[in-house]
Every structure is written in structure tokens, then in C-alpha cells.
Amino acid sequence: MERSRRPLVRRTDFNYETDCRAALAPLVDGLLDMAESAGWDRRKAAYTLMFLSAQRVGAGKEERK
């Protein structure tokens, strides 16, 4: 899987979230394309990615396995 690029602005910059979206959007698109190609419903896969992201945001590395 393709790697994300580094942030172009500092974490405290007003445009940090916009920069993050721009960096992650192609990766999310690719992941959804892969899920759809494997037979998963794209909308359900997107919902599942939102759920997994929220679940993992506070989890440590061991908890994510």
C-alpha cells in the first residue's frame, strides 16, 4: 500500500487539517477501490473505515492488532 506524505504545514497551522485531508484522500480512495474490487459495498466499506478510525484514535499499538 502507498505511503502518505509528510505534513506540509505545522500541526498548529490553520491549514493543517486541510493538508491532512489532501494527503490521505488518495489513500482512502485506493482502499475503498480495493474493498469494492473484492466485492464489498463501497458505502458500507466507507462507514466501516469511519468506525475503525474512531475506535482506533485512542488505542495503543497493541490494541489495534
The largest sheet is:
none
Give the helix tally: 2
Strand content: under 5%
General shape: globular
| Helix-strand sequence | HH
Structural class: mainly alpha
- Termini Cα gap: 18 Å
Would you count the extended β strands for me?
A: 0
Number of domains: 1
- How large, in whole angstroms, is the Cα Rg? 14 Å
The pLDDT mean sits at 91
Helix content: 55-70%
> pLDDT below 50 for ≥5 consecutive residues: which ranges?
none
Overview of this protein structure:
The protein has helices spanning 16-37, 42-56. The protein starts with 15 loop residues before the first helix and ends in a 9-residue tail after the last helix. It is 57% helix and 0% strand.
List keywords for this structure.
65 residues, mainly alpha
Topology:
Layout: H1 16-37, H2 42-56
Question: What would a concise description of this structure say?
Answer:
The chain is mainly alpha-helical and 65 residues long. It has two helices and no strands.
